[in-house]
Queue: 2 jobs
Job 1
Amino acid sequence: MEKGSGTACFKINTKMGEITNVTEYQAIAKQKLPKMTYDYYASGAEDEWTLQENREAFSRILFRPRILIDVSKIDMATTVLGFKISMPIMIAPSAFQKMAHPDGEYATARAASAAGTIMTLSSWATSSVEEVASTGPGIRFFQLYVYKDRKVVEQLVRRAEKAGFKAIALTVDTPRLGRREADIKNRFVLPPYLTLKNFEGLELGKMDQASDSGLASYVAGQIDRTLSWKDVKWLQTITTLPILVKGVITAEDSRLAVENGAAGIIVSNHGARQLDYVPATISALEEVVKAARGQLPVFLDGGVRRGTDVFKALALGAAGVFIGRPVVFSLAAAGEAGVRNVLQMLRDEFELTMALSGCTSLADITRNHVITEADKLGVMPSRL
Amino acid sequence: MPEPRLLSSAGFTNQEKMGEITNVMEYQAIAKQKLPKMVYDYYASGAEDEWTLNENREAFSKILFRPRILIDVSKIDMTTTVLGFKISMPIMIAPTAMQKMATPEGEYATARAASAAGTIMTLSSWATSSVEEVASTGPGIRFFQLYVYKDRNVVEQLVRRAERAGFKAIALTVDTPRLGRREADIKNRFVLPPYLTLKNFEGLDLGKMDKSNDSGLASYVAGQIDRTLSWKDVKWLQSITSMPILVKGVITAEDARLAVHSGAAGIIVSNHGARQLDYVPATISALEEVVTAAQGRIPVYLDGGVRRGTDVFKALALGAAGVFIGRPVVFALAAEGEAGVRNVLRMLREEFELTMALGGCTSLADITRSHIFTEGDRLGRPLPRL
């Protein structure tokens, strides 16, 4: 938990009106959700070092605000893969949202559209691409795991296209599932009344429909460990949807993503749920951005809880950020209204951060507006 | 004979008399006990995660001394001159709003304590006593802290009143185009208690600012801060007053240079008591960059987290011409009114004098960069020694 009275204090009967920051939803979710469900969402892998670090690393990046600049008009609109959105804060894919709240992905979709931003739907959603599309207009991306059965993958991609989804976020950090020890101890299974809706109606071939929780674990076991760059090429042959490579954290893989025609990169460590002891995404970001040399946009997820976090990511070169856990925690706490509130709070905080830093548009946010630890150690970019 | 007790800065008892307070920080816990939660939280809070609030203190503890020994320190002179005004020590009072919330006498008590200590008091624009009332306490060197409002007529009237009341300089707050997010105040739904008012706005031709109730006025006034404020407004201010203008809230080299170019009389390195943008550096961490960029052309002061004489010394060693103290004043007011503020100024004076003596410095000019070392120094950036 972070230092400071604001984020650590809450009361059991806190009403939404009294919630003053995104992190407060986590404690409410913990109270409301069954342990197995909360632990599934909250956990990281093994020692959870990276889980903590994803937050801590932001607190080591400081600001260099510029004063006496007219900040009466702040414009935080931006364009992602050609799609105009109201702010560079988007929704990351997180699985099984109906475990958090009966409205699940419907609520998230509505909140994202109301906020004028992008929602990424998880392959392991408890609502299908069609159901999410049925909530009304909105820009949506589809997160994809590549399964051993490529026909299943092809069907998923077709359905996403037909449902009007605009891009694929290909998860590349999960050839095998990371060791989330709480899930192991809890023997996590998807509650029996829920199902992975994107697999309903598919010709599953070898994936036979056992029980729902059985399907979930079967699906997890079907992730293709052979996944490699040639599969990115294959994916490009079966769809014209732009492909974001989600889970790149090195300069080498950043170059390969560019060379392989990816439409973008999401610097991600899968919410610290895969390989423990990877750097925080905010720490890895600059290396990936530099290696991409401006040839594709680089986004970030992992640990974004404050408007100040969003600003820091943009200052270090991210074109936008995605938020994961705050969505499921606010769903659990307050359904669609909770997710709307999270997006509103991040928008308001980010806008204020821009104003207090002297930035009136995203283009005004530069590397000189932040100081990293590397800067302090004397590798100083020129300031004047 | 009472048993000796270990007194930490956190320890205090309900029966603590002024004689038993041994450092400035002890007033905070007393104030917390005495004040209603909403009032204490208003004074004590920082923005959002309060990282900078904590850091403003922590950063001082990472700066260490290189004391020189076997120097005659029998006579210590800590007097100095600020904007041409002689004061007894380089420790001044920062503007803090609404001091009558802390104690009935409010700004009167602070003014008297400052004058008695021979130092400068800065009056907040959002004071619960007017410039005239503060001036009426008797002679003293006073600065006026200014927010620039959308209605420039209001600003002009405020400046005129401050001039007529004998105030000597303007401290222009530049880090607040919008109010920072102090989450305690949001949760508490902070309002100015109804029996108090922002006295500098009484009697003004407020135009669009109408006088609803007092707490309404306070929130209205906060909403009237002009977000368009920029360097050209410094020029405008210079055209309506000949009082020197200190730019309060500069923390970068670039803005230090702009301050010099704009004709500002000085800079106060400040992060508004960590109440504006969270995750800015501690002011003591930002100080050296600003001092270096100012190139000695204008004085650079500091506020934020000063609680010890050792803190004052460190700021001067890093190039500050003086420091301002904020929260210690309101906490001391809450604890003991004027006597508390007098005590805070006395304790800081005595600690600073002792620090000078133990550091081998007999005047402020003796305090040099070589008397301290920072983390930057330890990481191998060479420090001139001889």
Note: The CA atoms of residues 254 and 292 of chain A lie 6 Å apart.
Job 2
Amino acid sequence: MVDGGRGDGREDLELRSSRYELGVTGVGNGKVEGSVRLTSGRTEVAVEVKGPEASLASVVVKPTANRDRVSVNVKSVVSPVSGQSGEREQALEESIIKFVAGVLDPSCPPRTTITVVAQILSEDGSLLACLLNATALALMEAGIPLYGTPVSVAVAVAHSEPSPPRLCLDPDLAEERTSQLVGTYSYLFSSVDSSESAIEEMKANIVHVSTLGNSNAQTALHALTVAEKAARLVLRTRAC
Amino acid sequence: MEGGRGDGRGPLECRATFLRTGVVGGATGSAYLEVGRSTRMVVSVWGPRQRDRDGEGSSPHEMQLDCHVHLPFARGEAEEAAGSRGTERERTLARQLEQGILPSIQQDRLKKCCVEVQCTILESNGSDFTPAILCTSFALASSNIPLYDLMTSCTLVVVEGRILLDPTAAELARSEDEVSLAYMPSRDQVTFVQACGDWSERSFKECMDNCVDGCKKMRAVMRSFLVELGEGGGRPASHSLDYFQGGGEVCDQGPGAGEDDAGEKAPMSGGDDDEPRREGGGGAARFEESRVSEKLGNLVVADQDLDAELDTLLDV
Amino acid sequence: MQEAEAFKRLYPEEYLDRFLVKDIRPDGRGLRSTREISVHASPLSSAPGSAVVRMGNTTVITSVELGLFDLGEESVAGRLEHELDVGPLGTTHNNGSIARNRQQTSAVSGRVRQILCRSIDLGSLKLSEPGEEASPGGGKAWALHVKSVCLSLDGCLFDATLASAVAALATLRFPRRLEQLGEDAAGEDGGRPEGDGALRFLWVPACTAVALHKGRLLVDPTDFEESLASAVVAVVWGRRADSPGGEEPEVLALELGSEGQRASVDAQLVRRCLGVCGGRGTSQRLAALASLLVEDIDGGEADGMMEA
């Protein structure tokens, strides 16, 4: 990151322009309930969601005594731009599974399976945030009950002593490589009461965080608050 | 080869063996074995559980023993295509292990059950089969699975005309003939023999007898470890890996470790349910039985005297 | 004892609650105490570097193998690859799902690799050639193949795997100069010829996990506690390898997963988590691993056991 401006001329806290299309996959297959193609800058992903379908008898989900717990089995497949899926794709699959398990509403039919299939079409930074956003949109399109509206953002922090660390939102690949800390944060926004409330008053629940890079505890927390504000902003732009 | 073997043993001397249970938390039974300083393995036993529906060929009412062998640090085999059941070496050893151990289990008491044995070989210097049998038998003994007897095993090789027990990998590579046995000492039964070589110049029976003697020695070693387990103590052998200490018997997790904001020391009362203590207790209970039965043996003899006395009394 | 076991299986939440109400956990620890960690260096005599780490009932053994590769024109650094093998335990924990097992171990293994690559100086893996003024690119460098095997699992697989990999790398010895390779079968047999180098660490990482259960924070959860938790936060702390100690450790990585329906996690809670897990337990772990490094640099035999 160049001092002063970012590579593509954005402000520090400016997100890339993102677009998404729903219902991309035709219903010819009959099984795909929700599908989304999300583009954010030059990162593009396509996600399809199948389900909830009946679990196979061989898949046993551990029965839980707690009635509030969701007992849905989530499967996920992530395909890279080219080549075979490797360790990185499996780590992304794991993140998606945990994310989906975290945002499902307890009213989801129990002992069912939801399958998320993601294809990375092009990559330019903030990949996990895009994948999680696309997954959330696909789940909503499929009509699967969620416990709120999930929004994910990516943050990058660059240290350059002695000036304070510099936070940037929605980094692209070059910025990710040069920054010390890169993190993806997912929030679940829900209304405090049942009536429609303004977006500023919605409760933000952290569902997923994964950061890599050294920082002191303060910077980590600061990134967290900035990410929350950014997520609210994304929600607002989506609403209008 | 004149003189002694590389490590100073006699030709019919086995390497020092160390055994410990309670190594894998959560397993029904587990054991850790160390031979010399260069063979180390961990065996865990899971079950008895419900049998898989698709048993291979055997009757659905019988017990099924599922052995899996794992050699994670095997060198030079990374390029070999590992099927879903492991490399060739792992598969062969799993089959041999199953054949060798099965006769020691009381199968009619475990109908329609499946017992799973997972063997992880960290390092192996010499025959793989012998330490695997010893460790598996020890793990089964500590897991309350009904057994007829401990299974012991020994390997014998002939190197340049000399008979050597418990060979190292180097001796194995130089050997001309090789015999591996699995033997149940208290029943005096050999349950598994694997031999390769040319027996025209020496007596196969002599080699087998030497091997059986080696097995009897191993049995004494195993029993001594089990008896100590029953007594609740653990004699740390001089070359034991200390990190496995405290696994089976007393739980070493004192409240001194780590921070305790409340400032109170959590008492380790019997009400707390902790896995290793329970497992060690199970193993201990089982071997209390065996020692008791030894003592019972003495009592039975005494009873016979009593009977004789009673007879004389009644005759009066 | 069997009634307690049955109760635990039928009503796991109530079982745990009864302990937490009294501010202790089922294994007798306080809510904020970590399990004792024991590190044993070089248990495998045939591997160039190895270590076993035991945290309560979780045991992970790691071995490091060396390989050589030719550097391209631009790159100057060595490589590090990590593989995790949960073996038989994975199927037991994942209800027999092999794909799920592979995903989880890949995720853990990938994170360990990322943290290790940031913690060591990969440039120190380049072999220096005879007759100095080696060209900046080209030449040979070491590739480290780190393989971890989990022998028993009771929660916190990532913590134990990371600690075990760090300890194994700390005990690693390899020749630094190209001309030493010919002398002693690349020194891979565990021999330690003169001039052997140790790996240079930039950071000493250690991870501590915190589980959230009904508003209570449980540090270093066991498998039972993890399965009931509504959120798990794993923080990797790092201390600079060349610092004398006493500095505040920094956060190297943070991972949080929560079930939105059951837990409400906000920045405040994350701050509490960071405060709680940066406490004595983590500093003990960091100290245990750092002492392993220092001992090696002094050239002492790293065969002792360190308790923390």
Note: The longest helix of chain B spans residues 275-315.
